[in-house]
Each structure stands twice: as structure tokens, then as C-alpha cells.
Amino acid sequence: MIPPMDCQDLVEIVTAYFDDAMTPAEREIFEHHLEECDGCVNYVAQMRMTVELTGTLTPDDIAPDTMETLLAAFRSATTDPS
Predict the structure, then answer these.
(1) DSSP H helical segments within 1-82, as ranges?
(2) Residue 22 CA: distances (Å) to CA of 44, 49, 67, 80, 82
(3) 3: helix, coil or strand?
(4) How many CB atoms sit inside 10 A of residue 35's CB?
(5) pLDDT tens-place string over residues 58-78
(6) Residue 13: helix, strand or coil by DSSP?
(7) Which DSSP state fits 22?
(8) What are the domain boundaries of the chain?
(9) Residue 41, CB-side half-sphere exposure with 13 Å CA sphere
(10) Cα(first)–Cα(last) distance of the chain, in Å?
(11) Residue 67 contacts residue 59 (beta carbons within 8 Å)
(12) pTM, two decimal places
């Protein structure tokens, strides 16, 4: 019997799935959840598309004001303990 995984667990480890950094047992549990959860199938597809699209961007593709907004948001998120 494959142990259950909930949607929150899947979201937390989706990067490991994309990076092929799971053990075979973890991958089996992850993929079993996908067989039963259309919402997570959609989430994984959206994340895969995001990774593919953002992987094609270069710093020159981003407008300077957008870059500053993104950097400010990142700095805030990494320094704000809440």
C-alpha cells in the first residue's frame, strides 16, 4: 500500500520532483497522489510551464522598473520574519 500524501505536502516538494531529487519511494508516493488529484495535476503543469518560461528570460528581458519591484519584493520576503 502506498502511503497517502496531501496536496500541501506535494506543493512543498514539487521542486524536488522537477529536479529528480526524490528517492524512488518518494516519487512513487508523489505520482500516486497525482493519479488521484486533478488539482495537483494542474498545479504541477502550471509550475512546469512557469519553470520553462522563466528559464528563457535574461536580465535584459526584464524592464528596469520591473526588476526593481521584483528585487524589492524578494528583499522584503527574505528579511521579514512574518
Answers:
(1) 7-18, 24-36, 38-54, 64-79
(2) 15, 20, 33, 30, 30
(3) coil
(4) 10
(5) 888 889 999 899 888 888 876
(6) helix
(7) S
(8) 7-79
(9) 7
(10) 39
(11) yes
(12) 0.65
Phi and psi, residue 31, nearest 5°: -70, -30
- pLDDT given at position 80: 55
Cβ neighbour number for residue 66 with a 10 Å cutoff: 10
Q: Given this model, what pLDDT does residue 78 score?
A: 67
CA dist 50 and 57 (Å) reads 11
pLDDT digits (tens, 9 = 90+) for 13-67: 999 999 999 999 999 999 999 999 999 999 999 999 988 887 777 888 889 999 8
C-alpha cell at 26: 518518494
Check if the beta carbon of residue 27 is closer than 8 Å to that of residue 40: no
Q: Quick one: cell of 56?
A: 528563457
